[in-house]
Amino acid sequence: MPIVTRMSSHQFTQMLSVVALLIGLMPLPTLAIEPVLPAKTQVLSKLKALKPNHGLLLGNANVIGDFNDTARRYNLHRTGPRGRDFTIKMCWAPERKRVLFCGANHGVPHRLNDVWEFDLPSLTWVMLYAPDLPRGYGDLGKDVSDVEFKDGVLVTKRGGPAVIAHTWWGLTYDPRHKALLFMNTWVTKRERAVERLGGDPSKLYKGPPLWAFYPAERKWKAFKSPKPYPRAIFGGMLEYIPDLGGSVWHANNWQMRATWLHDYKKNTWKNLNVNGGGKAFETAAPNPEQIGYYDPKRKIIVVHRHYNTHHFDPKKNEWEKVLTGDKEDGRTPYGHDARAVFYHDPRSGHGLLVQFQTNTIWSYHPDDRQWTKLNLQGDPMPTGKKRLAYIDPAMNVVVVIEGVKVWAYRYRS
Asked: What is the pTM of this model?
């Protein structure tokens, strides 16, 4: 006769857990974010005590990473990345609770394809991808020994982009695929570069140079999309919109007047034909060098360009110019992707714009369609020409970083 064994309720529960895990009904254990960065008690205490509408100098950040000769040549192991001309946008990665940064200077002192992240609780800059060799302004630089022409793309032997651009506002984060997306367009004479490497310029991929960086794997990836696809102009805007299931690439000047949607999984582009195109689009949509963000509650993109403010409603498929300001009105900040940053503040639902030229912070209320210049209290914002800034939703602060000097401002409690 078969032997029957009585199973305890605890054993039965364990067995069900194992079975459920195997068939995918239970989530796998969450892996630790690498590198592990223990929070500093003093930093957390200061942030907890920070009053609304007050700024606070938190101290100097540590800088860590696997620094190579290129990084050390430019002293990055001491200074961190710093702001880089038209490259000042930072992108929050919600599952990492850190902010990501990449992109190049004009060429002084360097043009590098390094990638960084900043962690506020530990006050740490982390180099996730050490730079390949430095590139020239319009070519691949003096030393091309690390570059190859592969599948129509100029890529480094480590897999990074051999052509590296400003980000302008063409940088966004896709939380579904845990990828930093970058429209990497630059003036590099690619045909000449391919010839220099002994390749055939006719085999160059001619589509938009969209790249992804995966912080968990610390790897770059180039996208090669089939036609149709948008033009990759300077100063455009790339923004992930969860409701559309992808990222929009937008421009409104003589080079391209359209808002396109990229499907990550299919790697295809679609012209959304916003405002029906034509004069309606040209009048309502923001011009290049804009700054902006996606508002998940109102489900709109809010954009500011020079003294004009625009909204994009994906459901209506329409851009609208909601405010027209000017330099003298005193009620409107100056928005420009080399001089200011503009992010969504989830606690208040407002947009917060950090204006580096005037050393000010402005709030924008999308419902009232009104700007307010904030009268900051506490420690003054750091000054300097190489600043970066972002909103840390986990700590509920605006963070301004000058090299390794870190300052935080709390808009509302």
From this structure: 0.92
